[in-house]
Design a protein that fits this description.
Layout: H1 3-28, H2 34-57, H3 65-90, H4 97-124
Protein name: Cytochrome C and Quinol oxidase polypeptide I
Transmembrane segments: 12-30, 36-55, 67-89, 101-123
InterPro entries: Cyt_c_oxase-like_su1_sf (IPR036927)
Length: 132
C-alpha cells in the first residue's frame, strides 16, 4: 500500500466534505454543524495530509507494522469520530442516542490511539527524521 497516496486521497475527500459543509452553513445562515465542519477539516483534511507528508518526506520503512496500524487507525478513527460526531449532534434517527454516543467515543478513541502510535513511530524511527 502506498501510504502517502492513500492518505492524500482520503484527506482530499475530507477537504471537500468540510468545504461543502462550510458553504452549506454560510448559505443557510446556520452554524449548527460548525463543530463537525471544524473536526472534518482538522482531523480529516489537515491531520491525514500531514501524516501523508510525513511518510513522503521521511523514509519510514514500508514494512513497518506500526506505520500500518497508524495509517489504518487514522483512517478508521477519523471516519468514526466525524461520523459519530454528526450522529451525536444531529440525532437523525430518534432512539439511537446510546449508539450515537458509543460510535462517537469509539471513533475518537481509535483516532487517539492512532496519534499515540504516531508518537511511537516518531521516536522509534527518529533516525530517519533529519534535515540531512
Amino acid at each position: 500500500m502506498d501510504r502517502t497516496r492513500f492518505l492524500v486521497k482520503t484527506s482530499a475527500v475530507y477537504a471537500f466534505i468540510g468545504a461543502f459543509i462550510g458553504s452549506h452553513m454560510a448559505g443557510g445562515g446556520g452554524l449548527e454543524l460548525s463543530a463537525i465542519h471544524a473536526h472534518i477539516l482538522v482531523v480529516g483534511w489537515l491531520s491525514l495530509f500531514a501524516f501523508a507528508m510525513f511518510y513522503k518526506v521521511f523514509p519510514i520503512p514500508k514494512e513497518s507494522k506500526l506505520a500500518l496500524v497508524h495509517v489504518w487507525g487514522s483512517f478508521i478513527g477519523v471516519f468514526g469520530l466525524t461520523l459519530g460526531m454528526w450522529l451525536y449532534y444531529t440525532n437523525p434517527i430518534p432512539g439511537l442516542e446510546t449508539f450515537n454516543t458509543v460510535f462517537f467515543i469509539v471513533g475518537g478513541t481509535i483516532l487517539l490511539i492512532a496519534f499515540a502510535v504516531f508518537l511511537v513511530i516518531a521516536f522509534k524511527h527518529g533516525k530517519y527524521i533529519s534535515e540531512d
